[in-house]
Amino acid sequence: MSVRELFAPRPAPPSRLGFYRKFSTHAGVHLSPIALGGLNIGDKWHEYGMGSMTKESSFELLNSYFDLGGNFIDTANAYQDGRSEEFIGEWAEGREIRDQLFIATKYTNNAHHHNAKFAQQIFFAGNSAKSMHLSVESSLKRLRTTYIDLLYVHWWDYTTSMEGSWG
Fold it and tell me: What span is annotated as the signal peptide, if there is one (predicted)?
């Protein structure tokens, strides 16, 4: 590679999604100005009259977003009963692009509420440290990754103190 090639300006991004912005002064990451929300990615909530997508249409949406320069995907442990994370993980693994994405997910909701295998589900919901650990473990498996870029509380449970959650 010549010096000229090394210092050549980068080509323009394919869309405005590729004009990345600093996420936070403390985070040091640059993200698309619009995050792709994963609420409708998955095929489980059609029975509730809510948006659901087949795997193929989910992958088409994800491909379009990424190919236009998008790099920020937001989902949650319970979106589409966990299927959102599964589809996103399978898609990212198949394209071998996990390290080019910033994946945020949330916990608080019980992603196992339809699973009769778990007779006692009290630890799968809320903002307790145990709920967080169980959710992260499940999310990592579904997302087919070893790390989550951003984990946050989906909604406050009004019973867990800040000190109790983190320490």
Answer: none
75 touches 38 (CB < 8 A): yes
Mean pLDDT across 1-11: 84
Report all structural domains of the chain as residue ranges with CATH numbers, in order of start. 3-166 (3.20.20.100)
* The token pair that represents 52 in the structure block: 């659901």
Token pair belonging to 62: 């994800």
Contacts of 33 (CB under 8 A, 6+ apart): 16, 17, 19, 20, 21
CA distances 66 to 49, 83, 87, 104, Å, are 28, 19, 15, 15
Q: Which of 48, 79, 107, 147 is catalytic?
A: 79
Rounded Cα–Cα distance for residues 154 and 7 (Å): 43
| pLDDT at residue 91, as a whole number | 98
- pLDDT tens, position by position, 112-150: 666 667 666 667 778 888 889 999 999 999 999 999 999
Q: In whole angstroms, give the CA distance from residue 130 to residue 33.
A: 33
Active site residue 79: yes
pLDDT score at 110: 79
pLDDT value of residue 163: 64
